[in-house]
RNA sequence: GUGGGUGUAGCUCAGUCGGUUAGAGCAUCAGGUUGUGGUUCUGAGGGUCGUGGGUUCGAUCCCCAUCACCCACCCCA
């Protein structure tokens, strides 16, 4: 038997209903906030991700599905969605056009990781990117949108917030941090030693207990923000409070992608195991110029759909449409014709095998149909069809030509 | 990439201290006297016990490998 690749799943029937429900809910909300759908390729030039996500990140460093195609191009399956959207934004010269551009997207992402709960090699994200808005209000909008989506789906969460600073305060802070790390001498772990030169901020994120103990007194970025970053961060907190969105400041929240600056946030759930991040995002004002565009402020977020799946509270399913069945082999012809008529406006499912009335009622029940429509001996003789409303428990026999 | 766990019916799982025809519940299908469901009763079908080797007179059970899944580390959505 040929199986799907490791960490790559089929999504069928019941699961897909949830999936579809999620997409419908999230898309509706994104549109309501003024965002437009954008579809970008699953396959992109490898350089795109190296320059955006960053070579120091694990994603690019060891998790990409990278290969050379038949035209000798170094390509890879997208590990995340932002890079492609920014590439499209620049390629279509929207940066030069100016103004505000707001996009949402959803689709599969690929990361070569060891699968576990909430972590797949092919997984799906729903994301949003906003270009051209400098204001923190847009950062707040992002967070409000995620909160809105999660609320609509009946999902509880905790929101973690941090500011990563910008070009003014980050370099100075980085220096401060590096000298602090150096003061720890060789007590730090190997990973931290490496991060010290590649991406020092990430040491704060270290899961090693010994390191964490060393870093309690590390300088915190939050205390070293420049005036602009500080006032934006304060404003953001105020807006969230005004909108009744609870948050906790997490000074160790460092997004794993290199392109973030200023606002960084993460929504986590305590009910889905160790892969608890259900949404993450932030501001990335420098990314557009990294990808050869005109400097343009930008913010975005991405939601991990699979991680939300088991948390989604679905609305109760109503009985819907028709179930058609024949009690005699000869009755199948009028049954098919009747079903075709109904199908112009409603759902109609036909059982081809002649069965007892009881069996048909069971069948109708199983597919959660509202009506069970059957043609047997009596109906066949009179050109009628017997229809039972499974909710009202009423039944009627009507002439076939009066079927709407 | 590292560590631990699990693979028996469509699903959830028993089980055999190695020994004849491998079980249950749910699901499916059929019946409970003439054409009435979602709650009953009876019965039936369905398994090369993940795959490949090895030990043995004999393996679903023990050993090795392999694959898949699960959980955690790590990473992140």
Explained architecture:
The protein is of the alpha+beta class. It has 15 helices and 16 strands. Strands 1-5-6-11-10-9-7-8 form an eight-stranded mixed beta sheet, sandwiched between helices. A hairpin with an 8-residue loop joins β9 and β10 (277-283). α1 (13-32) runs antiparallel to α6 (136-152) and α6 packs parallel to α10. The longest helix has 20 residues, at 13-32. The protein is elongated, with a radius of gyration of 28 Å. The two termini are 47 Å apart. It binds one RNA strand of 77 nucleotides through residues 3, 6, 57-59, 62-63, 80, 109, 111, 113-119, 123-127, 191, 207, 255-257, 266-267, 273-275, 277-281, 301-308, 327, 356-366, 372, 374, 376-378, 386, 388, 390, 393, 395.
Q: What form results from the Cα inertia axes?
A: elongated
In terms of quaternary structure, the protein is single chain
Low confidence ranges: none
Total helical segments: 15
Largest sheet: 8 strands, mixed
Helical amount: 25-40%
In spatial order, strands of the major sheet run: 1-5-6-11-10-9-7-8
SS-based class: alpha+beta
Strand content: 15-25%
User: Termini separation (Å)?
Assistant: 47 Å
Beta strands, count: 16
**What is the gyration radius calculated from CA atoms?**
28 Å
Overall mean confidence score, pLDDT = 89
Quick structural summary:
37% of the residues lie in helices and 22% in strands.
Topology of this structure?
Layout: H1 13-32, E1 36-37, E2 43-45, H2 46-54, H3 58-62, E3 66-68, E4 74-77, H4 82-91, H5 94-97, E5 101-110, E6 122-131, H6 136-152, E7 158-163, H7 170-183, H8 190-198, H9 209-215, H10 227-242, E8 248-249, E9 261-268, E10 277-283, H11 287-290, E11 298-304, H12 305-309, E12 322-326, H13 332-343, E13 348-350, H14 357-366, E14 371-375, H15 377-382, E15 384-389, E16 394-399
Parallel strand pairs: 1-5, 7-8, 12-13, 12-14
Antiparallel strand pairs: 2-4, 3-4, 5-6, 6-11, 7-9, 9-10, 10-11, 14-15, 15-16
This protein binds one RNA strand of 77 nucleotides through residues 3, 6, 57-59, 62-63, 80, 109, 111, 113-119, 123-127, 191, 207, 255-257, 266-267, 273-275, 277-281, 301-308, 327, 356-366, 372, 374, 376-378, 386, 388, 390, 393, 395.
């Amino acid at each position: 038997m040929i199986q799907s690749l490791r960490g790559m799943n089929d999504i069928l029937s019941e699961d897909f209903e949830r999936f579809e429900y999620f997409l419908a809910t999230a898309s509706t909300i994104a549109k309501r906030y003024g965002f437009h759908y954008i579809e970008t390729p699953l396959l992109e030039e490898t350089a795109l991700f190296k320059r955006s996500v960053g070579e120091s990140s694990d994603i690019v460093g060891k998790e990409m599905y990278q290969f050379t195609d038949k035209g000798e191009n170094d390509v890879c399956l997208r590990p995340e969605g932002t890079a492609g959207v920014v590439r499209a934004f620049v390629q279509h010269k929207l940066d030069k056009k100016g103004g505000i551009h707001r996009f949402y997207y959803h689709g599969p992402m690929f990361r070569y990781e060891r699968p576990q709960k909430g972590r797949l090699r092919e997984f799906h994200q729903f994301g949003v990117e906003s270009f051209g808005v400098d204001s923190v209000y847009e950062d707040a909008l992002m967070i409000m949108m995620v909160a809105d989506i999660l609320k609509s789906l009946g999902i509880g969460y905790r929101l973690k917030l941090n500011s990563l600073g910008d070009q003014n305060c980050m370099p100075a802070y980085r220096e401060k941090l590096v000298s602090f790390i150096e003061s720890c001498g060789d007590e730090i772990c190997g990973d931290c030693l490496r991060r010290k030169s590649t991406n020092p901020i990430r040491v704060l994120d270290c899961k090693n207990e010994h390191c964490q103990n060393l870093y309690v007194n590390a300088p915190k970025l939050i205390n070293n923000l420049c005036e602009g970053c500080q006032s934006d961060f304060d404003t953001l907190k105020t807006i969230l409070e005004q909108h009744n969105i609870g948050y906790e400041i997490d000074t160790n929240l460092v997004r794993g992608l290199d392109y973030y600056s200023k606002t960084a946030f993460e929504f986590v759930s305590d009910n889905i195991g160790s892969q608890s991040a259900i949404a993450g995002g932030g501001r990335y004002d420098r990314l557009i110029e990294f990808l050869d565009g005109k400097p343009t402020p930008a913010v975005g977020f991405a939601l991990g759909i699979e991680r939300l799946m088991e948390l989604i509270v679905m609305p109760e399913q109503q009985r819907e449409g028709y179930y058609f069945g024949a009690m005699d082999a000869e009755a199948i012809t009028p049954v098919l014709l009747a079903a075709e008529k109904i199908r112009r406006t409603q759902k109609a499912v036909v059982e081809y095998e002649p069965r007892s009335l009881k069996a048909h009622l069971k069948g109708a029940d199983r597919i959660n149909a509202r009506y069970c429509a059957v043609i047997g001996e009596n109906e066949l003789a009179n050109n009628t069809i017997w229809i039972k409303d499974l909710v009202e428990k009423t039944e009627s026999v009507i002439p076939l030509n009066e079927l709407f």
